[in-house]
Amino acid sequence: MLQPAIDADVLTVNRYGTSIVTLRSGQSLRVRGDGVAASSKALIQGGRIIGAAPSLPIQSIGV
């Protein structure tokens, strides 16, 4: 079964094909892939960067 893709902030891109990312929970992970620049958002699936994530604005609506 395929794992869901999650979005993360890329902290650093390392020389050996890995990157350090931060999840929404605040947890940092080393993942495979270096195709997304530091300070950008990436989609992570199965411990690998699968592409860039869009930087969409967040809006909060009170009810």
How are the secondary structure elements laid out?
Layout: E1 6-13, E2 18-22, E3 28-32, E4 41-45, E5 48-52
Antiparallel strand pairs: 1-2, 1-4, 2-3, 4-5
The CA-CA distance between the termini, in Å, is: 38 Å
Please tell me the CATH architecture by its name: Roll
What strand order characterises the main sheet?
3-2-1-4-5
Largest sheet: 5 strands, antiparallel
How many domains make up the 3D coordinates?
1
Could you tell me the strand content as a percent range? 35-45%
Rg over CA atoms: 13 Å
Number of strands: 5
Number of helices: 0
CATH topology: SH3 type barrels
> At the first level of CATH, what is the class?
Mainly Beta
Silhouette:
globular
Spell the H/E element sequence.
Answer: EEEEE
Provide structural commentary.
The protein is globular. The protein has no helices and 5 strands. A 5-stranded antiparallel β-sheet has the order 3-2-1-4-5, with no helix packed on it. The protein has one domain: SH3 type barrels. The mean pLDDT is 92. It has strands at 6-13, 18-22, 28-32, 41-45, 48-52. 13% of the residues are buried. Strand 4 and strand 5 form a beta hairpin. The protein is mainly beta and 63 residues long. Helix content is 0%, strand content 44%.
What key attributes describe this structure?
63 residues; mainly beta; SH3 type barrels; 5-stranded antiparallel β-sheet; 0% helix; 44% strand
Brief characterization of the structure:
This protein is 0% helix and 44% strand. By secondary structure, it is an all-beta fold. It has a single domain, classed as SH3 type barrels, CATH 2.30.30.
